[in-house]
What does this fold into?
Amino acid sequence: MYRLVVDDRYSNKSYRRLFARLYDTEFVYTIPMDGNRAEDGIALRYRFGREYGYCDAMVADFLDDRSCSILEMMTALAIRCEEHLMDDPDVGNRTGQWFWSMLTSLGLGSMTDARFNRSYVDAVLERFLDHNYQRNGEGGLFTINNSRFDMRFTEIWYQMNCYLNEIIREGV
It folds into this structure.
């Protein structure tokens, strides 16, 4: 998953410690439709398991044993954003861009291996999971500057769509 969202376009630094923490933290949702994001994260395991030939019964059992992590959910969401909504062959694959936008909105963009602070990361992830971020989504996955909605009570899919609408309106 790391290589899907980290390349020279987005960073030349290592974020492996942050990604490990994101992977070790379960994506627990309180808004029912956010369960779809968890399902996407779990489906991501199978997608890449098939691509790399890991589809025997033992691996399938392993894949089913674990709940969705925050890293899996965010990566799957970035892929879904690119492949289903924002695909533009003239621009190229922007999966990493969508992922890094979420990391930045969370406040984790500076958490390179050299600057990694587990206590800070855990507090940020707890704030995200508890929806204790700003009304405009700052501190959550998407910061929307001019939203009519309170992002703390809006499912992640709609937060992302509000964010993309804002990008399109601003011509970014």
